[in-house]
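Hi support team,

I submitted a single chain yesterday and got back a structure, but I'm not sure I'm reading the token output correctly. Could someone confirm the output below corresponds to the sequence I sent? I've pasted both exactly as they appear in my results page.

Thanks,
R.
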Amino acid sequence: MGRVSQAQAEENRRRVVETASRLFREQGTHVSVADLMKAAGLTHGGFYKQFASKEALIDEATTHAFDGLARLRDDALEQHTGQRDAAQRALIDTYLSVEHRDNAADGCPAAALAADIAREPEDREAHRVYTEGVGDFAQWLATDDQDGITRLCTMLGALVLARATKGSPLSEEILTAARAALTATS
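Hi R., thanks for writing in. Yes, this is the structure output for that exact sequence:
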């Protein structure tokens, strides 16, 4: 088998980062390189041609996931023609939905990666990206009446608890209660 073109190598790298971003949010960063590459449709041997280490991929996949969250916020604001309160309300409704609860792979990296990032050394790029991403999200959620950190903690906590109690009536009750609390005064 011959060498791949530079364009194909870049496409393969993009595919691995996207796949890792989804798998890490769905299953955690303990996913093996072999399983990750298989999910990306590539061979295990190609991994180290693209990445110095699995930790380097975790860094990139975390950045990719938080970039997606920023795009989601921007899209909400664009859909509500600059009306920040309406955009925040729409995002809260989406965030605290059964669909988001059931789709961790494409969901919020703050909720999905919290336990894994907490185990990372503080000097790691993934830790820095996670910290900045959480701070940016909290800042975006702030209103005149509500602190963004409190709102984010409520959303994230509710999502994590709803995922952990999935299959019981309590799961949807958690989502409903948090959504009501966050949108009552916004």
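A quick pointer for reading it: The first helix runs from residue 6 to 27. Let us know if anything else looks off.

Best,
Support desk
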